[in-house]
Fold each of these.
Amino acid sequence: MERQGPNVIDLNPSDNQPRQRQKKTQMRTSNRFNERPESAYSPGDAYASPAHQVRCESIRLPVAQAHNLTAQAKITKRSFDYSSVFMESGYVALIDAAFADFSESRHPFFKGKSELQENSFWRLSGAEILADMPRSMLQALLDGSLPQKVENQDQPDNQLREYFDDSKYPDDIKAGCTKSNPPAINPWVLRSKQDSVPAFYVRCFIDDIGHAPTPRQLRTAIACMRQYVSGNSDYDNLCVRIDNESRANRSDEDDINQGLHHFLAGSTERVENIITFCTALESVLDDLLDVQVEQTQDEQPQDQQIQDEQAQNRPVPFMLTYVGYTGNESNRTRQHESGGESHLKSLFESVCRMNFRSPDDVPIFKWETYIIGYPVSPDECKMGEELYCQITQSYYNGGLGFNIAPAGLSTDSTKKLSQDECKRLLSIRENNVMFVEQLTQEFEEDFLRYGERVKREIAEQAERRKRLDQEHAQLKEEAAQLKRDAISKEQSLAVLEEFREEQRKLEDSCTESQQDLRTHLERHHKDVIDHGHEYIQEVFKEQGSE
């Protein structure tokens, strides 16, 4: 059982409208900071010691409606079920799907000219990157089961655990020093422990057995995040608690009142990012609920309600992820653990720490890091990070991840990779028996099957195009026939004049005692003729414009 955090308050209470925060800049120099001993400050502190205090920009909340609209416009919907694509057609099919989404993303890779923009480069290098990792690991990464298969001891198929189990690594170091027999450690683990080895990693937000939060927990987190950026004074205390959850009590309600939210840092762009993520994640949860409702629609209403309630308390069947690249795996992990996180990721974690705790008052969820790939060249470092971001759908605007900046840009460590170092890394990859076997399977089986599927799709598209061309030709002929059958403007006016003559005959047939009737007929006939003239003018005016 978990201990729930504070009750989530309605975002729009009727008795208290959001107030405007005044935008200002100030130095945070309250006594709270000055009384804190120097030893209490960690190297990663955002506010370090008093001697290292930073200028904090405030923000006016709520943000203007234009920012809300901008946030909504950033949202993207998933285009592919990457897990199914890989299972059906292999590496190249998976890479082509990722490249299609990448091409729609306006990534900075498209500035200038480089092979990072080329599908052929993605296919060749991407296939080698993916074939270098265990196939079962890639499949688990795509279907969201990786953390459970690694962390849950009761999983019947837990062979993936050995790829991340570094518990015997200290014994391996000791064996090297004493020249004794080393313990059995998976080569995947040993690769990550070498000095300055570039690697790709994924961080997953999970509990102790690898489960993601439930839909109900995620909706609670979303509500708190929205309240955090609402500017409503009802939530000042909530904002303080969120700010201080992992930061040794540095914010107070006066800070919040002045717009000095720790996770916003005075940035409307950060507010937009939070709104985008929350809205996108809500959409994912709504889609998940629709699927669950469809699956239980044949149940009795009472049973359906019970199953829907149970579904809201089951972990979501996907991972909440952050994908990254590092030139040194151990250093990057320490950086994350010491607080080197993005604002969105840190805010989400703080909200969940506050709301979801065990009976022992320990946070239920945590970030766990898994090494998922090893690039062997600078361009692979750049392209590979973007590839993994796409296939794990880890960008924040899709609702499943926390990557904000475009991937593949913060790879400065690749400049240190010499040609000799790249050759050494390539040699490690090529000596990986699994790599050779999986790449052989790709090009002898999966790629051929994918090629046949593409041929069928091309043939089907050609057939659809042929049918559309035939339908277009038929419509064009029908339009031409209608034009040939249509009468001219002069003919239309002549017909209207003949009709007017019939009206006059009817008017003239009225006797002297029927003058009121004649007057009424003349007025009515005039209205009809005037309307006829207007209609003819309008019809032939439109034809003239065509």
Amino acid sequence: MRRANWGDGTSLYDAVDFSLRKRLSKIPGRKAIVLFTDGVDTTSSRSGYDSTIDMAEESDAMIFPIYYNTYASNNGGTGSPLPNINGGVLGSRGGIFNPRGQSAADYQRGRQYLNDLAAYTGGRVFRPGDTPGGLRAAFEGIAEELRRQYNIGYVPIAEGKPGQRKDIKVRVDRPNLVVRARDSYIVGATAEPARSN
């Protein structure tokens, strides 16, 4: 994290795309992403909300967003921008601008994005600001979830076509257990049978 580059915006969608496509796709076995963010994307140019949700769902990585509410700090500390009668938001020099990532709707969309990432990958959103123990509790929760993870495989009756969404439901008969699992998966490309020479 110390080597991370800081800039004038948040390219969250591009970062999720890069992590899934360029970094984790080369690693075999179980994978997890811990994402520190408010969920608001302001500067992505190559990826979007829907494309990264689809990519995350197709990946075999669990995503654990750690949500930080930055709405108040990004809106003058008051929690809401100063509206202008002409629409937009008053700037520091009295001008009108409508920056991406500053409205309440942008922050609601950001929270939904994080919820979707977690839901479609079997992960979970942690909110250290609203949780006793804060960030430490979030890391302990992620470690606990990864320790208690089971991989279950099955062979469906109807295989489906590559790219098709298939719904699944995982249930347990024992009381006092909680199951967190994807509710669907995307059918991948069929592997070619090995040829013998």
Amino acid sequence: MKEKGEEWRGKRRGKEWNEMYREEQRRQEKRRREMKIDEREGKGKERRGKKSKENIIKLKKVLLWFFRSGKCPPAKLILEQVKEISTWRRN
């Protein structure tokens, strides 16, 4: 038969173990949440970056065409293109 001291020690160990387990669960949950947030941010950044790069390349092609043909591109056209790209970056 166990003495009172041994029984109490066993209960205390159980409580400590439960606390440690709960802390570990909290840490893991926090890590999962952070990873989800990171994934969401990463996807958004990749998409936005890709689209703006494509549009900048298009603008460069248009400007190069004007430059090679010897014509001066209208300033209005350049401004419109730049405005479009800046709005795409915001979205």
